[in-house]
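Case study B.
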Amino acid sequence: MTGHVVPVSIGRKPPPRPPRQDAFGENIFVIDQSRCIGCNACVQACEECGTHRGHSMIHLDEVDRAASTQTAPMVCMHCEDPTCAEVCPTDAIKQNEDGVVQSSLKPRCIGCSNCVLACPFGVPKYVSEFDQMMKCDMCYDRSSVGLKPMCASVCPSEALWFGTPEEFAATRQGTLVNEWWFGNQYVATKVHTVADAPGSIDVTAGDGERPWQDDPFGLNEMASGE
Amino acid sequence: MPLTEQELVARYGPHLNQEPPGGWNAGVEADREVKTHCCFCGQQCGIKLKVKDDEVVGFEPWYEFPFNQGKLCPKGVKRYLQNAHPDRLLDPLERDPGSVDGFRTVSWDHALDRTVNEIRRIQQAHGQDSFAMLSGVSLNNEKSYMIGKFARLALGTANLDYNGRLCMVSAGVANKKALGIDRASNPWSDIPLAEVVFVIGANIAECAPITTSWIWRARDNGAKLIFADPRVTPAARTADLFLGLRPGTDSALLGAMLHVLIERDWLDHDFIDNHTTGFEAAAEAVKDHTPRWAEGVTGVPAGRIEQAAEWWGTSKTGMLLHARGLEHHTKGVENVWACINLGLATGKYGKPGCGVTTITGQGNGQGGREHGHKCEQLPGNRDITNPEHRAYVASVWGCEVDEIPGKGLTAQEIVEAIHRGEIKGLLSICFNPVVSLPDTRFTKEALDKLEFYAIIDFFLPETGFHADIVLPGSLHEEDEGTSTSLEGRVIKLNPSKSPPGNARLDWEILCDLARRLGKGKYFPYSSSREMFDELRVASKGGSADYYGITWERIEQELGVFWPCPEEGHPGIRRLYEGGLFYTEDGRGRFNPVRYRPPAEVVDTDYPVWLTTGRVVSQYLSGTQTRRIGPLVAQYPEPLCEIHPNLAGRHGIETGDQVRVTSRRGSMTLPARVVSTIRPDTIFIPYHWAGNRAANQLTNRALDPLSKIPEFKVSAVRLERVGPPGSAVIDEREMDLVEPKEEP
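Model:
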């Protein structure tokens, strides 16, 4: 054998972090609920983000576990005109110039939960331990220095995804959606979700192309003697 | 033992580590990041561990590693919490009936001398093979190799086997006999090139989560996805075609698919003629396996079986992936052969996007099954009964051929020999048999009969209750070495820290034992690198040839695939290119597979099928993951999945306590009523110990060729015991109080 020194990692310093930059840059954040496998990697990783410190800001819900293994992850959609900030009586919710809507500012937040009730996506949560609203901030300590948010870094199925629209178009299927109507309220968001085609969205996977889903074990299919 | 099992758990854990060292707000800045790999599961995802002052304090995604590109499942995310853990064993322990702790702390000299004296005493009284060793396949390649050498030359016993015997050993046997080599057929980058991806018996979303992204890439390219499983698992939910088969009927389903391929002539005749043998016998075996017949056996509608056969048979490319759901059977080898037959019949081998492969489960499940800690094996996946193989390995080891014992017993057979009183002493490492072996009561009875039992581990596993000596070993992140991922990619594990307290590296402990046994000349190692370089030579010319792989190459190339016979060789990523197999005649072998029933079938006393498996937040017997708070919070205890039709007949609702009884034992646990499981089948995950162990119920029946136990099929009885017990609370939700309603 050669006498080369093995390039083990001990003693290596982490590379210097790049200077601050626009959190999204050329990138978009995409949620595709149909790909979610409910593994909770996003939930576990969110609380590992340097500024989240043990508090996960992401929502991951079972849609109806009795009927399906479908789960739905939800990060803050980062509205262009954030309703949460508009309804805040103390102006505690700030939007950065790059479009990231932050958690409430602790000195200003009075814990009234106006934002919790007003958000059309149900994202902000009042956290009693800190008496303030906390929510997804797109891992600002990471995204503002060119790193992907934690959830989109770890997501095993790429249900949560961070990259350029060109990469998405080249590698993924579906139509990106970031405009919404809630009654008469129009909302445009920095975060995108995915639809099979333009039009209304069914975030569950039951899209009619997989008829087995209505009868996974073929109970009716076999009973009918087909 | 003066303590109950519960008291021992209270003293030694599992306790939960919830936060990084110093707490979330300690503001610890890592002083370095170490590129290494996750220790949980065969995917071996790249990960960077953050280290501060010889302690692991967190993780950072490693985006450049090609397999997972930064992706991790929750186990990988929280893996760092097994460090700085209050349960960590820091000193050797000796069983002490007079101690309130059950054990007393002893010196290394005392612990090792006692162990050596007991080994000698037992072997002198009862013969060399009366002392056995059980090893684990979460160990790196270097340790797997040296343990094979340690048991044969230092202990001088034939009875060494490993817990891969509980994992994918049936696939290994089937692959070697049919294809001449035991490795994944393809790199995972072939999956997105497939027009059809057929997954059978693999809960990919929970047991190999990153593989989901490779399958989705295939779907993004337009592939059709077929899943066969008794449950609509999270990944199966998105399948284009779902085959919800009854446990234990895989070979009926696959046989019917082959029947349809033949009947409709969806065959690759050129491939069959030029690159295979045995087609006629395989065809004859499934002559009567019609889809209509298979519907009755499997419970899968005949139309869906025909559809699956059509997609597989008429697509140009296709990948078939299988795992424990197919392999944990008394016909595990036959089930894998039935998959291989589908691949050979349609020529789906050795081409981009074509292959049939197991998804290896355990951390080093691939590399750990190649270098000699299996009872029938020598390094390089050589045969311990083959005189040429023995002579070559003896020349590498510098021993007489006769010093290498013959073939020994497999893992479950070792425990049965202990129960019969034939094996009197045991050394185990990285193996928790009271959780992982079938029929827990039998396993405990056996371990209680041992005259002497020593274990090497970093935490005290539940099996430690039966140990006389406990030797504190090392965690994955404390040693340097290599492992081999489920793709067949040899990768580098870099150390982040040193073992705490008086704990030592596993291989140093074994070298020390070898010296005290008078066999130190065979174990002169001062680093694990020396073991790897010896492994390279020992594997040279074997079917698992690592000779051309160096630690430098692995780091520079982000992994090297074996076989790699020379240093300038690139390593073979896709096996069987050009239709060349590793058998003596270079042809792939069809094997005739006729369906036969599992060892135990349902009857009026035990009318429900039980199948077992994993959840995404736990790993194997839970020695590590049941000590990580956030993972325990995610799925705190085993739940019994029951279809609403079956639950309704017993008046069972979600959360109710139910009793499940088999011929081996009984357990009570909460019900989870879901229509995502077959109405005739229940599911219990197996990661827990004591009265929460699913293996209290499972059957010790073994596959005749591979000796893998039939974990996946038992017959049980189901009863409602009562309403929910203590509520299961997800601690992470407790702070998130819902806002009050506006008046």
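Chain A touches chain B through 66 residues (CB under 8 Å). The remaining cases will be described in the next quarterly update.
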